[in-house]
Every structure is written in structure tokens, then in C-alpha cells.
Amino acid sequence: MVNWSSLETVFLDMDGTLLDLHFDSHFWLEHLPLRYAERHNLAHQDAKDHVIPMIMAERGTLNWYCTDYWSNRLALDITELKSEVGDKIGYRPHVTDFLDALRESGLRTVIVTNCHPDPLKLKLERTGLDQRVDAIVSSHQLGRAKEDRQFWQDLHQLAPYQANSTLMVDDSFPVLESARDAGIAQCLAVLAPDSQQAAHEQHPDIPGIHHFDEVLPALRQRQSLPSGR
User: What is the C-alpha to C-alpha distance for residues 153 and 170, in angstroms, rounded to an integer?
Assistant: First the structure.
């Protein structure tokens, strides 16, 4: 599934890969429409019918992920509203063991996320995730979403890498396809990003796992090789 011995760098998505996507799903589909309904004296369902199609229309673009964009468009403080449900932020199963194994194997780990810096700060405060990886890059630093193939070329500015010895792990098939098309040698899909939702079907061309315990044994074998090889 993954050729660990050929790798030097592992790029990791955050939301839906390392962290449970339920936080974001609940926020955008339930909590935000609720607060919008209160602001505009609407029924909750009427607010959802208005807000959710507006959000979905931006899917795959940087605006989709941009807290500032939605704060301005909806006249709500998105970062503050996210903090109201911050107790839902948490790791997916086996993530801390996986990150510890990556570190022990000598692999360089970089979180590559579309998350805006403001909610990113909230999530790091809640999880300490930044202490478990070597670096974090937000697509907002580069002005392109990961779905954009050019993103991967621009990423060299902040996190130089050799494509032929890099793995990208993500729950988004469009992101993984973009990374693959940009030359990243190995891609791995997370099929169960949201603990409250059914898992995705397997991608026809990209291997997938439900949880990281499926790859931990092979990764730990790498640890026993000289210099992590």
C-alpha cells in the first residue's frame, strides 16, 4: 500500500486525516446556519437552505476554506463561532501512534492543509498537533488550494521536497489526484474522515485506509532498518 523505505517526506492533510472531520461538518452544516438564523430571525432549516448552497458553490476553491471570506460574506465572526464548538475538535483513531511512528522512523512530516490560519490556530491550541510534526503549511500562505495542481510547485517555496520520495495522505480525492498529477510519487486516501458519517468508497487508482492502524505495522518495520531505511 505504501513503500515506506522509498520515502523521505510525508505530507499530511489535517482535517479528516489527522483530526476528526466531524468538527468541521457540524460547524458548517449545523452550527453556522443556526447562528445565521438567529442573526436574521430565520428558521434553522431556512437558514441552512440559504447558507449551505452558498458555501457549496465555492467547493474546491480557496474561498471554500477562507474564514475571512465567509466572515465578510455572512457578516459573522467565523473564528469566534468555531470556538463555540471547539470541544468537538479531536484526533481520529490511531493518529498519535501513527505520528509517533513517523517521527521514530526518521521521516520528515509536514502538515499541508487548506485550513485558514485562524481556525488552524484554534485546532493547534486544542490538540498540540504542531508539537508532533516538523512543519505546517497552510494553502492560504500560497494563495492556492491544494486542489490546484500549481499549488504543489509553489509548495517548494515553504517546504522543499523531492517528489519521487514523498507521500501525500489526505481524505480528499481531488487533492490526492492533484498531488499525483503534480508528480508526487505516492498517495494514500483516508476513507473514514468523519466519525459520524459513513466511509467513502475506495478510489479506483489511489490506495485507501479507514484508520492508520492498517499501515502501522509496515511503517514500524522501517524503524528497524539502518537510518530509518
Answer: 18
pTM over 0.85: yes
Please name the residue ranges forming H helices in the chain: 22-26, 32-40, 44-56, 62-65, 67-74, 78-84, 95-104, 117-127, 149-154, 173-181, 216-223
What secondary structure does DSSP assign to 154-181, as a single string?
HGGGTS---GGGEEEEES-HHHHHHHHH
Count H helices, E strands: the chain? 11, 6
Of 88, 76, 112, the C-alpha closest to 25 is 88
pLDDT per position as a tens digit, 195-212? 999 999 999 999 999 999
